[in-house]
Amino acid sequence: MISYVSGIVEYVDTEKVIVDNNGIGLSVFMTNDDLSVMGEGEEVKIHTYFNVKEDTMQLYGFLKRENLEMFKLLLTVNKVGPKGALAILTTCPGDMLKMSIVSGDAKTIANAPGIGAKTAERVVLELKDKIEIEGVETFEGDAPNVDNESTNDVIEALIGLGYSKTEVVSTMKKLDITDEMSEEDILKIALANLS
Question: Which of 22, 83, 105, 170 is the most exposed place for a label (fewest CB within 10 A)?
């Protein structure tokens, strides 16, 4: 098994990177987020998963070990293969995926290419008890000086409008909400950021 690859970035493609490791070019499939921070000529260390089938051998990699662990966890779900797991992690990176699973938000997971609603629901159902809630960012308590009742009402209203809980909470975290703001004010800036 290949646990990690380190070397010099030779080439960055739309879905993979070629890493020169002592004269051997290794092709590693990665998420868009990880690929976007890589530049040719840079030295990298990529945590990898080596997938072997009867007709192919592929490396899947992540800059953070936590994302590799989530990838492996996704592979335990029935009918989720390496490409599907990578697509899910590209659409829902890190804590966003954990929050989607914990909150039962299959809609956000289903936005991943090649992942349908049934598969997304299966991911939530099979992994809900396996996700550690500690360390997963939530909205409540993260923003001091905010009336949580007003903020939670806005979150519920946005979910009622059809936005997923995960995307609403992620957007709300980015907003600069003050005590002086009414629910309508919060709703307006949230909608502007969600559009």
Answer: 22
